[in-house]
Structure formats: structure tokens, C-alpha cells
Amino acid sequence: MEFPKRKRIRLTDYDYSTSGVYFITACSRDREPLFWSKTFPGVVGEAISRPSNAVPIPYALTTHGKTVEQAIFNIPEHYMGVFVDKYVIMPDHVHLLLRMENDGRLIAAPTVNTVVGQMKRWASKQAGISLWQKSYYEHVIRNAVDYEEIYTYIEGNPARWLEKHSLS
After folding, report:
1. Helices (H) and strands (E) in the chain — how many of each?
2. Which of 29, 39, 49, 158 is most buried, by the most CB atoms less than 10 A from its CB?
3. What is the pTM of this model?
């Protein structure tokens, strides 16, 4: 039996330890809705720069969702020069806007793969189960317009999800 080949997601000849901003999407194992639970009122789509006028919606982060959130908060604590500009935790996936600032003095600057892999491993270890699909989606942010579009996409993701999955 021949196994399907994974699609290459990385840019050829790009150094993922250099300074840059990356849009990351990591999905839960088998796309199970592990990160939200239906409660009221609740708040999902947590974001570091969450607007103060955010409207509560009838979902809240599950225990696994809160563990993932802590793993995201841990990223800048564990990696000097790595910042999470924006994130959202959805029912079955997470979006991150990851900024890496390498001033060239680090002997072994972390790569995007190292940072995301560590975040996923830590969350799974804390949860006591495997939370994630293998791999993740990544997109190198190329300019200010690209950054703003991704930032806005992340911010609006919970509302789009709710619109698509009516609250019947």
C-alpha cells in the first residue's frame, strides 16, 4: 500500500531561524473540537491584544483549550526574541502570528519548527493526551499588508466560525 505524500509547506531555501513574522495554524488531532465547550456566557478567541469591546459568546475554553493558551503564553518566556503578536484558539485549531527577532548574536536561534513543536509537545504533556495533528500550516508574512490581513483574519475567526456553525 502506498502512503500519500505530504505537501511541502516550507519555502525552499528560506532560513526559518531568521527574523520574520509567521502565520501558524495547528490543528487538533483528527480535527476534534477539543478546545471549546458550550457554556454561557463565555469567551473564546482569546487574544493578547483582545479589544475591550469584545462581545461574550456562548462558548468558553475547555481545560485543554486553557492548557493550549498557557502553552502559547509560555512561548516568549522560553525563547528570547520570539513573540506572539496575535493568537486565537478555535474549537479544533489554533492560529498564531509568531514574530521572531534574531539579532544575530544567538548561537542557536530557535526555528519556527522548534517553537511550534515545543508548544504542541508541552500542551499534550500537560493534557495527558496527544492534542495535535502532525505538522502544522505556516505562511511567511511578506509585508505590512500581508501582516494586517492575517491579523484581521485571526481576530475575526471566532465570529466567522459562529456564523458558519449556527447556535441552534
Report:
1. 3, 6
2. 158
3. 0.80
